[in-house]
Amino acid sequence: MKKSKTMVKIMISGYYGFNNTGDEAILKSMVRAFKKKIPRIEIEVLSRSPLQTYQTYQVKAINRQRLRDIMRGLRDADLFISGGGGLLQDSTGKGWSILYYLGLILLAKIMKVPVIVYAQGIGPVNKKINKLLIKWILNKVDLITVRDDPSKKILNNLGVSRPSIYVNSDPVFLLKQKNINYLINNYPSIQELINLDDRPIIGISVREHKNNGSDSERIFAQAADYLIENYKAKIIFLPFKFDEDVQSSEKILSLMNNKANILKIKLEPEELLSVLSRFSLVIGVRLHSIIFSSMANIPFIAFNYDPKVKHFVEDLGLSELLLEIDEDFSLKNIQEKIEYVRENSDKIKEILLEKVNNLEEKAIANNELVFKFLHL
C-alpha cells in the first residue's frame, strides 16, 4: 500500500450504474462504511452512469469503459477494490464481463496498486480460459473475501492459493430500514400499496433468464391468482433491476385474472427494506429479493436459477424454501411451498433472525479486513 498520505484514495469496481437494486445496495453499504471509518477518503467508482452514481453517493465516478480515465485514477490510488456481487462468472450475460473485471484487476496490479477482491460470489466458471485467467490473476491480488463457502471452494479448486481467502457475507446486511412514516410522507402512493388491512401483502420478484419463457410467466401468473383467490392476498411485483424487471412483471400481470400492482418507484435500498417489513411473504427469483426479505425477517420462497441463490438459502439452513426453477417449477409445487411457509412462519422467522445477525457480523468483518490492510 502507498504510504505517507493523509488522504486515502480507493477505487471501486463492480456492476454499478445499471439500476440494479442489489448491486447499488452493495455500493451504498461500502461507501457508508468507508466514509464513516476514514473521514479523509476519496472514493472513485467505475460506473455505467457516472452522474447518477455521483449524485446518489457523493463520490467521484468515472465511465467504466474509459480506459484512459481509469488509468489516470489508478495512478495515485491506495487501493483497488473489485466487488462485491457475482462479478467473476460466465453463466449469465454475453460472457465478456469476467474478462472485464479480471482485466481491471490485472491493470491495477501492473500499475502497482494493491487489490482486494471484496465480498464476491464466485462462479459458475465454465470456460477453460476463464479458469486459467482467474488462477493467474487472482494469485497476484493482496486479499480476497467471498460471501459464501462454495465461492472459496471454487477458488481453491481453480488453484488460487497465494492471497488469504476469507468467507464473510454480502455487504448489504449492514443496511438498516428507514422509518416507515418517513417513507410514506415522501411517497404518498406507497401508503395505498402497503395499507394495513386484513389482506396479507405478498411480494413477487421475477427476472428474465436464459431458461425463462412463456411457461414460467404463466405459472407465476397462476401462483399470483391462487394467492389472491385463496388468501385474499395483495400482490406487489418488486423490480430489482429497472426497467428489465418491470417488463417481466408486466408480462405476468397481463396473464393474470386478478388485479396486482408493480412497485415502479425506484426506492433506496433502506426504503425498500421498510416496505418489505410490511409483507407476509416474498416469492423471489433474484438473489437480493431473498436477501432483503431475510433482512426484513419475512419468510420467502426462492427459485434456484443460479447457484448463488442455492448457496444463500442453504447457508440460512432453509433449503426447504428453495425450488428448482426448471425441474420443480410448477403451480402445484409453489402451492406446496406456500402452505409450508404458512404452517411454519414463526419457525422460519426465528431462524432468519439468528442467521441474519450472524451474517451482519460477517459483513462487518469484510470492512475490518479492508481497514486492517490500510493500517487504519
Could you explain the architecture of this structure?
This protein has 376 residues and is an alpha/beta fold. It folds into two domains: 8-167, 3-Layer(aba) Sandwich (Rossmann fold); 180-358, Glycogen Phosphorylase B (Rossmann fold, 3-Layer(aba) Sandwich). It is 48% helix and 15% strand. It contains 14 helices and 13 strands. The protein has helices spanning 21-37, 50-57, 67-74, 97-110, 128-138, 149-158, 180-186, 188-193, 214-231, 244-255, 269-276, 287-295, 307-316, 331-373; strands spanning 8-13, 41-47, 60-63, 79-85, 115-120, 143-146, 165-167, 201-205, 234-237, 261-262, 281-284, 300-303, 322-323. The strands form two sheets. It has a seven-stranded parallel beta sheet, with helices on both faces. Strands 10-9-8-11-12-13 form a six-stranded parallel beta sheet, sandwiched between helices. The longest helix is centred in the last third of the chain and has 43 residues, at 331-373. The radius of gyration is 21 Å and the shape is globular. The two termini are 12 Å apart. The relative contact order is 0.12.
